[in-house]
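Revision sheet: structure tokens.
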Amino acid sequence: MKNSTVKPAEGKLGILIVGNGAVATTFMTGVLMARRGLTKPIGSMTQYDKIRIGRDDEKKYLKYDEIVPIANLSDIEFGCWDVYPQNAYQAAVYAEVLKREDIDPVKDELEQIVPMPAAFDKNFAKRLDGDNVKPCKNRWEMVEMLREDIRKFKAVKNCNRVVVLWAASTEIYVPINEEVHYSLEALEKAMKADDREHIAPSMCYAYAALAEGCPFVMGAPNTTVDIPAMWEMAEKTKMPIAGKDFKTGQTLVKSGFAPIIGTRCLGLDGWFSTNILGNRDGLVLDVPENFRTKEVSKLSTLETILKEDEQPDLYTDYYHKVRINYYPPRNDNKESWDNIDIVGWMGYPMQIKINFLCRDSILAAPVCLDLCLLIDLAARAGRYGTQRFLSFFLKSPMHDYTKGEEAVNHLYRQHTMLKNAIREMGGYEADEEID
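Predicted:
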């Protein structure tokens, strides 16, 4: 670490997860197994990726923790909220993502992770029926109860710092309302007035986290921290925020493959994406109002990479459709199909077909780890507000749409932003340009 001004990662890092389902338990189990040397944290950028620092004779490729002080896996303490009361071991077994032989070695630790009652409103996730729920009279009481949970967890686990991560189900779509969501004062007023139409439970988690000095990561496509009121809250509390929606399967492919079409100056007629998924997330997304939230997130990727205004001959009026279908037999083993109709020389049509058989939680777990470690790093570096350098890990990266800013969805530009931020925090020159 050259001239890094980042505070050291001293003491324990608490990671409080909203949700104790397939993603959360796969994440927690993997970390607990890895720090015992029983598995490898494959897929994690913070554990494997190397970044060039310096040029010419001074050029070196270093891992993240050789450039900046990143929390060690052995210093992590987990906690969670969930509508179901089962501990993390029971939930991991129930999720059927991991084999018992990969869960049982850390059974003792997982059993100690018992979910706190969730701040929950069934109207936002109608398919969930758990009864481990806080008896909140209104949204403001929901915030206060969550703040108390965070304080208690931090004290009991003796944590130096806490990060709050949303890994729960997708809420119904909440359109951004300027009268409620554009100022912190209006947001707090709506919470106190128990405005259940415009204030989603996820907003209460985010507000509570920031109020308690905890960075917040939104891992679903919910309308939560991507509103001016939350940006104001993050500025006020000097806390970093990131979102939204973990970029795991199909969108990861799209954000990496669309640049191939654009770079090669091929045309596009249409891109049809469909998925089948059978876990709890799939169940929730089977409700049209919840799917709408996900659809908005997934549709935003392509249009910021293949842009009509930059290449009208190539990208005018192409058709982009996204579908997710709930299919219980597949459980967490998600399958996606992409049919891409491209246009080549003299307007001749061609097709590309991609069939991705992936494991949703296996792809999401390392993303959870990286987001938590990097947003903790950002907080110790004194960075606050929207952390655009974390766009690499997110389907629908946050941006200031009130000023006409556009999200960066191009995977390779996102990687450059990530590397530059790490360099900068390590005291090195952020020397890669983003075209």
